Amino acid sequence: MYKLMLCLRYLRTRYIALASIISVTLGVATMVVVNAVMSGFSHEMHVRLHGILSDVVMESHSLDGFYRWKEHMEAVRQVAGDEIQDMTVTVHVPAMLNIMVRDQWLPRQVTVIGIDDETYNKVSDFSKYLKHPANREQVDFNLKESGYDAPEDSKLAEAGWLYRREKIRYQQELEAEMRRFELLNRSVQARHTADPNEIDNLVSPLDLTRNEPDGPVKPKFADDPNAPPVPGPPPAEIADRIAHQKQPEIEPALAGGDPFAARYKQPESTTFDPMKHQAPGIILGMAVASIRQRDAEGKVQDYFLAVPGDDVRLTFPSAESPPKAISETFTVVDFYESKMNEYDAGFAFVPLSRLQSLRYMTHPDLGSAVSTIQIRLKPGADLQGFTNRLRAAFPPETHPYRIQSWRDLQGPLLAAVQMEKTILNILLFLIIGVAGFGILATFYMIVVEKTKDIGILKSLGASGGGIMSIFVGYGLSLGIVGSGVGCILGLLFVWNINRVAKLIEIITGREVFDPTIYYFQEIPTIIEPMAIVMVVTGAMLIAVMASVLPAIRAARLHPVEALRYE
Amino acid sequence: MSNTMSDSCLSTPTSPAVAPAEKRSGTQINTDRFDTPIEVDRPILQTIGLHKSYRKGQHVVPVLRGVDFVANEGRVTSIIGQSGSGKSTLLHLLGTLDVPDQGEIYFDEKRTDNLPIRQRDKLRNGKFGLIFQFYHLLPELSTLENVLTPAMISHGLFRYWAARKQLKERAKHLLDLVGLGHRLTHKPRELSGGEMQRTAIARALISNPKVLLADEPTGNLDRQTGREVLNILRKLNEEQGLTIVMVTHDQTIADEADSIVRLFEGCVETV
Ligand SMILES: Nc1ncnc2c1ncn2[C@@H]1O[C@H](COP(=O)(O)OP(=O)(O)OP(=O)(O)O)[C@@H](O)[C@H]1O
Ligand SMILES: [Mg+2]
Do residues A477 and A338 both lie within one domain? Predict the structure, then answer.
């Protein structure tokens, strides 16, 4: 009883001990904050790293892929069918992507992945990162009218069919204008060469003097009969000719009363009209097609090299030996942004069947070839165990496949993050350890100061254990107070971390959290109750351990000597 | 043999080294008039050939050199002697605060000097009441709490909680007895020396001790205040038959006791 009472009395009358506990408080608070932020980051990182990848990838070593993938899928299912949620096949091929930027082809190196739009988003979170809401529901490779998610002022906001038509119209007008001038030039030349045939053919109402370099320059008056006409659409016959040159449309012969017309119904137009048609769709990584920069005011801005609606050219090897380069135009239909730069700058997705046929990966007997089988496991399945079993089923000695989980692919990075967290925890715990020595010193002083009282208690019959428990209890209560307060402080800090970051930004004028580096707007935090419990108990243990030594000294004091102590 | 002569006291004829059991039969007188034996001078505290020396490195300071001491039940025994003669040391040994190098100590016919430490703690808590020259109150606790401390030590948390009413009543009663019934909540530093010593007496009495061991209880007080303290002790002895062993170096105080033991250079001097 006296233990409790004296313990409380000492707590109430010795504030210096409370001061020593502040270091424990701060240590605990820091650990709580750091753990929450680190967990937040690493969770975010896991999500990012996993991002567009499936759980496990079975990949052929060769670029040509393998044919009997249906059998392989069956074999995979036999390994651990109950753990598999979904499977799909893809074709991976390195490629050069060319984007037309201001009349120049800008090359980008990407890995083209041919995906089956029906099943691919079942094995990965790929569709979650797409920019168009409809594609997020179900991916298809059709260009959307508009409505891509982007900030108001971004070029991406107005991308889509609207943009494409606008652009093509502009291009066609430009082209028509160019053609007109070319025509004019030609007719001028013709007049100079004075070929009568040519002149007869070219009945031009245009005043040609304007473009004549060595012709006399006439004043430009509105009522001047010789004044040049206002630029307008090309005259009907020329425009007609241009139109026929460029797009000799073949109208399907439906008008005639052919009753079987519907059966032979041909595509609306067999000719490619960029106003109405798109090339095969391609989904680009955000960083493939854009550059993220800060503008003059320091605002983060994306500059797009291409947006949905633009055509790009893809060059990749065919699946032959020796491989031939195959070039094909694709229309950008969407972007994905997993916020993992490695992925966003490295992959382009195209329809699987299209890629297979372009690369000659179809065989009349064997069907189509693929280069990977992508597997998604059921939630909670043992990723490593499954991978190991799969590797055992397809040993590398006999099967030309590389089997990797997404963790294997990002192993070093994940390990580095984990290591960072561990080291930070050790360092911070050392801080609490240092605080423990502070407690030790303070307690030693208190024991020395209380030597006489200890003697008195012993002379009244208190046992050594009893005396000891006063001081250990004292240490424990300081530990509880210290780590409790620290825990609360830490949690408050975590809950308000983004406000704190903003405040620091205002005070120091520096950005604490650079979104161009981290790709997220806010500092991510995850509070793990287990980690907090460990930190708090650790701190309390340290406080108790630091008080044990002085307490033992107090317990061992000789009553007579203690009484004599002045 | 000259060495042993200087290290131990000459045995005096008045204090033969006799085992207490033998002595007991000699002190009991059976009369025809009473059915129960009347105890006459039953020794409650007794030491035989007590040796104690302090060691400081190689230097050995012999303090007690064969002390034979007897304190009888219900009597006031005073220990007198010069400063440094070993009075306090002897009292500490009697009160189980320390252990002798050699010799035996008996309390109530049971040997105490070789008991395990827990039992000595218990004995000190329950059977002895100690009073010191410098009061030795706990500064953080109030008068009442100081008086209750031995009870808190002997009772566990729950037992104390259960008995707290009675214990508090008893503590108040004892403080009334020493004339401090109105100063229950004061801290020791708010009390005078005499008041502190009276608090210490009340504290010594809380667990109903058999023997009160007082080390110069008036040593730090003026004559008047010392007198009051002594009167309280005398009253306790007369009314409750409390055995008191009191160390003093004041001859007049010693003279009031029933018996006087004089220490001189670690030996008992025959008066
Ligand atoms: N811890 C110790 N180490 C060494 N010597 C000690 C120690 N304690 C006591 N002494 C010595 O033992 C002797 C007796 O001490 P004690 O306190 O018993 O004397 P005392 O008779 O009570 O004196 P006083 O009347 O001044 O209180 C003294 O000479 C003292 O120096
Ligand atoms: Mg003394």
Answer: no
- Contact with chain A for residue B147, Cβ under 8 A: no
What domain range is A351 assigned to? 62-143+313-409
Is B195 within 8 Å of B114 (Cβ atoms)?
no
Q: Is CATH 3.40.50.300 what the domain over B1-12+26-124+258-271 is classified as, yes or no?
A: yes
Same structural domain for residues A109 and A183? no
φ and ψ of A192, to 5 deg? -70, -45
d(CA A142, CA A127): 14
A422 CB-near residues (< 8 Å, 6+ apart): none
For chain B, the structural domain boundaries read 1-12+26-124+258-271
Nearest-angstrom CA–CA distance, A123 and B108: 89
Domain stop point among A356, A389, A409: A409
**What pLDDT does residue A237 have?**
58
The DSSP element (H or E) to which A56 belongs, if any, is strand A56-60
Could you tell me if residue A148 is inside a domain?
no
Which protein residue's CA is at the shortest distance from atom 25 of ligand 1?
Answer: B83
The answer to whether residue B18 scores a pLDDT higher than 50 is: no
What would the mean pLDDT of A368-397 be, rounded to a whole number? 84
Sign of CA dihedral A236, A237, A238, A243: positive
The pLDDT score that the predictor gives to residue B33 is: 46
pTM of the entire predicted model: 0.67
- Which B-chain residues 81-100 have CB contacts (< 8 A) with chain A? 92, 95, 97-98
A283: tokens are 């989904």
Q: Has residue A437 been placed in a domain?
A: yes
